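If your schedule permits, I should be very grateful for your opinion on a structural question. What I wish to show you is a protein chain and, alongside it, a tokenised description of its three-dimensional fold. Would you kindly read the sequence against the tokens and tell me how you understand this chain to fold? Here, with my thanks, is the record as I have it:

===
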Amino acid sequence: MNWPTVIVFGIFHILALIAIPMFTWKVFLVTCVIHWACISLGIGMGYHRLHTHRAYKVPKWMDYLFATLGTMTLEGGPIFWVATHRIHHQLSDKPGDPHSPHDGAWWAHIGWMLFGEAKHSNTKLMSKYAPDLAKDPYYRWLDTYHYVPLVIFSVFLYLVGGLPLFMWGTFVRVTWGLHCTWMVNSATHMWGTRRFKTRDDSRNLWWVALLTFGEGWHNNHHAHPASARHGLNWNELDITWLQINLLQKLGIAKNVKVAKLDDQNLEQQAA
């Protein structure tokens, strides 16, 4: 057992349950906004489509902002997250994949983080898999001390909103966000539809896409990992892509890569 991770995750889940009776609509709405910023901007636009796959470019200050928001999800720093995800793509649903459902649904969802040696603060080791980010001093610092932005922001929430906002904006929001993101690792490799013939079991799952602002169109993503757009069809809502597209129209996002449906590589197969 990786006891530090088990203890931290356990504390967050327990405090999230304790926070539920502190509900108010104001606290709930503020929490939703923070959740969107951290999951859609931090993970979807930042860690995933920008830092891992380099699907587009933005000014450095925005690049840093997305990465900092990503750390506030309790999913580790940018170098760790990017390295883990690149390994996942290289070995997806094969031996060596960090979180394949072939090793069990619970393993893919959370178990892979609860056992073995924790790597989330081992910047030197994970830099081997993300050398592009490791060149940047800010990313090296942020990866090693990825918990600092969350701690500072949690204190800020307490000061401006008291205990209810602190509990909801930190523990409920982080716990909910973790499970939403983990469903991309577990659920979208087990259930859903397959449009493309990929070498893995990735699937498109609409309800995971709703929970993660577009990350649930996972088969589309594995077929075209460098695409900034995951929801490739008109009825595949991809909020993160809409935000990237808006930045492109404003002249902020550059070199945006977008895949299109390839009829020669389609596989219509319902789960």
Residues 3-192 form one domain. The two ends are 34 Å apart (CA to CA). Confidence is low (pLDDT under 50) at residues 266-271. Residues 148-185 form the longest helix (38 residues).
